[in-house]
Amino acid sequence: MYLLIYVDDIVITSSKQSAITNLISDLGLAFPVKDLGSLSFFLGIEVDYTAGGLVLSQRKYIKHLLSRSNMLHAKPMTSPMAVSLKLSKFDTPDFEDVTLYCSIVGGLQYFSITRPNISYSINKVCQFMHSPKASHWSAVKRILRYLKATINNGLFFASNSSLTLQAYSDADWEGCPDDRRSIGGFCIYLGKHLIS
Description:
Blueprint: H1 14-30, E1 41-42, E2 45-50, E3 53-57, H2 59-68, H3 98-108, H4 119-126, H5 134-149, E4 155-158, E5 165-171, E6 184-190, E7 193-194
Antiparallel strand pairs: 1-2, 2-3, 3-4, 5-6, 6-7
Helix pairs in contact: 2-5
């Protein structure tokens, strides 16, 4: 069993530091504890420290996914999906490599951690994993090309932020061409930080 305790040493005061040291020593009485130093890479997420906080990104994972899909030298795009694009399960023709589609789309799902701006696009292409069409694969390639263009983007967490919770939501009206269901979305911020 592993217990990961992350402490951002940028914002630690001396009283907080002693409380954290006491917590770690108390945990050491019950569990084997090892100090690994500052967090830099964990489960494919890179942590970069700045003067004002930290940035979570997935540059290495993006390069890996681009390489797996033979898109490493593809032309970058400025948006993950065309605004007017309406994908349907009745599109034709079928995409010939279903295993590749499922593998790449499954890999894309992991980006919703540090790249919530592409969550909608990824969710959309996930809906067709059971029977992908050529148009669905084109949408996946556009997402990959967008990731290539924005490879250095990530989530910034400031070392000082309020604890105000804000939520925003939106929905269209019967936006799905297959079943005429509405498509909705939301985002939740804790202070200035997008958390969901």
